[in-house]
Structure prediction request, 596 residues.
Amino acid sequence: MCGIVGYAGQRRAQPILIDCLKRLEYRGYDSAGIAVVGKDLQLFKSEGEIAVLEGKMPEMDGGLGIAHTRWATQGKPTTENAHPFADCSNRFAIVHNGIISNFMDLKDKLLADGHVFSSETDTEVFAHLVESEFEGDLLEAVRSAVARVEGTYAFAVVAKDGDGIVATRRESPLVVGLGNGENFIASDVTALLKHTNKMLFIEDGEVVRVTKDSVTVVDAAGNEVRREPHKVAWTLEDAEKGGYPHFMLKEIYEQPSAIHDSLLGRVESLDAEPFFSSGAFSSVKIVACGTSYHAGLVGKYIIEELAKIPTTVQISSEYRYSSAPRENPLIVLVTQSGETLDTMAAAREARRRGNRTVAIANVMGSAITREVDHVIYTRAGPEIGVAATKTFVTQLVALYILAMDLGTQSRTLSALAKRAVIGQLRSLPRAVQDVLNKAPEIEALAKKYHASRDMFFIGRNINYPVALEGALKTKEISYIHGEGFPAGELKHGPLALISKDSPVVAIAVKDHTYGKMLGNISEVSARGSPVIAIGFEGDTELEKYADDVLYIREIPPLFSPVPVVVALQLFSYYLARERGCPIDKPRNIAKTVTVD
Ligand code: AGP
Prediction:
């Protein structure tokens, strides 16, 4: 999973490409490179982040170019393996996001034909394929070259004697930005918002030629395709840090308005159009990865409570290889990016099984939106920090509304109960703001516990998945070994790990499991573990059990995951900051996982 950008226009391409590329750094940051067409084809690449490339590269002239930021899959993260790659004659430069699965076969054939390779990557074969297929027309050469490629890709190619970029995709994202006297390509709209919000989403198999004043799209058969551009509502400000030290912190603070936006127009009245008009389903299966999977786990409790429909949740990479049971569930695919390869494959598998599919996605026009019967957008705005925060809470909002619709359609949710749910949803922005106001208290807790090597998170019922999410956030950005458990499972193994050096974060809101939770807190404190409890304001009882208590405003337990997770996001953020970690770009992971 990498980021690609391209520019064709009258301005100098180099600074524009670097600026756009920086906005894609969340897609990978182990090496970067740039190719600009001026009097000659100038190419420069470097190991490390884009800033390293920027500091070392020479000035390049010309208004046409492509650039790349890499997250290594095939070949180590070295300068040699960085993109762009040139062919043997240095006539073409190419960048790639994806994986060429038949690259060994292709490389053997190309080597036998006398091509010389300079890297260990799968991508380099494409530069040589374009070279060998070129007969005077770059678009035709790219069409012929991709016909020989198996795998996933977004490619962009420039030629030293050409006036445009030729790009194509299969399962990796590719968008064209339309400007005045200049046009762009990129992996993601956020890279281009500074220059335009008019976007053309390229579909699988299409090839596009982009010059400074024209954009031509053809399908795999070479027929011209005409499509209206989209006007994207996101602004540049949405995609910038806006004074916060990290994107993650900014995105945590954006949650009250993200929740508000996600509700807008969707819960205006009890008689509003169903969010997802679907008919009745006897079961629901939620499929997702990582944080989105945790949202799905919370969604199970919500749907079973409000719609009384049995719901299972499965990790995408497990679902796609599982055997198909006889039931015919509604499949709900939850994905921020809409690009996660395993979730995409799960969507296809669900359709192959004949199931109705709905995606809860954040990125407009992302790949999954073309694979499903219905899309629910989360309206969180661009999320740049690798750690998912505002997209998690807006996924929860989407799941509450979906559950309400399913409950209404299956007549298990009365008008009165629905009115109460709507009231609670509307109060969530305030509940989250209350938690944000406690940031100094949470920061102090992080200062106290940041040196821990291990940390455990426990919860019960609907807050069990929130414990998993707290642990994931903590390990992902602070590198503290964080583990989440259903509190009732502690005595079945995990207690063996508890010691005075492993703080336990216990979610102890007052619900029907509260008494059991107090018992679990006693179990861990008896073994010397410091306990940080999260409970409802006024619950002074908790202070007898826990070393530290963080209070949140009391709300019905069904909605408590939203404020509780925000407290855990802030806690992990401050832990990571105390430990000096690169919060927005943790080691070894990228925001969008387009490999399996
Ligand atoms: C969470 O902080 C992670 N970045 C990761 O687990 C993420 O949620 C996962 O890769 C799924 O991504 P998606 O929502 O874009 O499909």
Q: What stands out?
A: The two ends are 11 Å apart (CA to CA).
